[in-house]
Amino acid sequence: MNSPELNELWEKTLGEIEIEVSKANFLTLFKNTSLLSLEKNIASVAAPSTMIIDLLKKRFHDLIQKTLEKHAGEKMDLIFVPKTMPSKKEDTGPLFIEQEEKRKITIGHLPRVRQEYTFQNMAVSSSNQLAYISAQTVSQKIGTIYNPLFIYGPVGVGKTHLMQAIANHVYQKDPAKKIIYTTSEEFTNEVVEAIRTNNTAQMKQRFRSVYLLLIDDVQFIAGKDRVQEELFHTFNILIDNSAQVVLSSDRPPQEIKKLEKRLSSRFAGGLTVDIETPDFELKTAILLIKAKKYDIDLSVEIAKIIAEKVQDVRSLEGTLLRILTEAKTLGTEITEDLAKKTLSGRGEEKKEHIHPEDIIKNVCVFYNIKSTQIKGPKRDASLAKARQVAMYLLKKELNLSLVEIGNILGGRDHTTIMYGVEKIENNLSTKTQIYSEIMGITKNLRE
Amino acid sequence: MKLTILSENLQKNTSLINRIVSQRSQLPILLNILLKTEKGKLQINATDLEIGMQTDISASIEKEGSVTVPAKTFLELIGSLPVEKIVIQAKDGKLEVISKSTRTVFQTTPTDEFPKLFEEKGEEIMGFKSEEIKKDLNMVIFASSQDTGRPALSGVLVKKEKNELFFIATDGYRLSLKRKPITGKVDEWEKPLLIPARILREVISVKQEGGEIKLFVSNKSNQILFYEQDTVLVGRLIDAEFPNYQKIIPSDFGTQVLFDREELLKAVKICSIFARDSANIIKLSFQKEKIVVSANSPSVGENTVEVEARLKGEENEIAFNARYLLDLLGNISEESMVFEMTGPLNPGVFKIQGDNTFLHIIMPIRVQNEG
Description:
The complex is a heterodimer of chains A (447) and B (371). Chain A is α/β, with parallel strands linked by helices and 447 residues long.
């Protein structure tokens, strides 16, 4: 008998013994045993120590013999041999490999920057690889290579994570360096406050002496002239001092409306990278990272199920926690069934209830027009706007294809729909009116 | 079973027995120790299935017998008794421990469930003066690895070369080597032994007065057994190949420093406070007449300590893990030591002044330069 056959025979035998004996006995006595040879009706069983052999002989000799005979189909005697199993890692490994200094995370952290956002715990796939690598390069070569670094992409793709990872990395290398991480809203507030209290010199000093400046969601300075002017000068001085500037936005610099030409050209003067919506694989990877953070033993299968159902990256974590809580309340493990059950209880069912006609009806009620008008050929400004809102909602809420939406709205071409959806999307972040209208309609829809 | 015994004799090795008894075994019997009468003495047996120990204690036996009792409570009770005669007797499946003022009854488990520690002693291959071997092992064991993933490094290699015995241990980042001349009989034995560091640590901690330690090996069962007077420790040799250590021992050096071990130990202790937050890194800078020991932690601060020393050759700098330095300097008892190195990225060698039988090598840490 060769060794795979012996192993197989022994595994079968152990499988049966496991049922017969207590768990404690099995784990301490049987776990590291193996069948060494089987010759002339003599089976040699290896166990790690003489003490274990003594216990096996005293208490389980007959059981082992009987079970082994049953599976081998012949009579046999047992002998026990003390021998440790070759461990999986037989390689002794190299001696005296070079050790590199590993800097520990320093005590304290930057204001507004979350310490857990680091490069190490960011999931990378093709959708964000370029941004990730650029950010890493920037963090290592501050001010010298890509200046400014402009990261753009839709919500929840990890722009903030990347920016904060740069900040954390630089901070850990040298906490003495001055780093400011801010959002454009806070920047605006600071400028306004400085003007109000007549204290602009101090504010200028604060921003213009930094080593690394990171401004998140920079698109919100659109239309704010005084803030743009302030940023413009700060920006120039920082670049001249070869301090690093990192910006993030939901769209590329040229597409930010109401942004002064001189600013948008400067924003685009370094490296502009985008992050796309994460694909399925990346979402799975993110889930696994999050699970590790909460110390949950999440299998890849379950992560896949969740990633498939949940679109938004931010709600991945929430969903994971919901499933965990569910499992804890029920006192069970996290299983595929449980995940499916928990997932089916959310979001999806609401969508099932919403019918395209519901959306059109709601839009019409909101703008006080008739549904025949919205589907009709007329292109008055008020009608066109309502129609575009309907297109946007049909796309976002039901995720219908452009062609389908075109058909629902009276046989319009899919490019028309595309234009309409984009227009609303663009207006959403800049025009509060549209935003509140859409929120109003969706609220009505859900009720 | 019935016997009378002095509590202090019983107390002598309780902490050792406590360490041998497995702390969290799933098998209840392994949380027990076996007491039995043997040739006019009381014998205590303990094991966690990996190593086992047996110690004989003088007693006056009235009635032979054996019994197993829960180790932890039994030892704790014994430890808290004053020095006096105590009577231990087994009665109706229970064990009574009676002293002048206390009376304790233990539940017992059948003794036949307790594993036998060894079948045969094996062959005696060498003997040592207890004190000497304990000192030698102390200089080596600490360098062995705690990582069970690399079994070969979790032991101490004992081998014979010409007329000397070698003890070598390494965890992959440091290495300790001690040689000693062979005295007594070891002729027939040739095969190097890889002995688990754990059993050697226990061998060191056996408390017996000024005796001899005998080493037995049974090739048949890969078993190793240490005999020191009334105490036996038994374990198994590690079945793995010890890495080729010779090639990492540097053959020359450009910097040689003579220093006082105690002084450097103090300096490293102080600096390690600051090294704690920066991966335990300590820098040693060797200058004329002094060693500057320094550590810094970006968020806490930094400090430097100067230690008098005599330098031969070039001035130099090197960074080590503070723990490795503390281990080394704390396990040596000689006062004057020598350090030799070639460059900041090559292993540094520590020796004892005027003693070429000891060698300790530490791999330095590459320190990122600022900026």
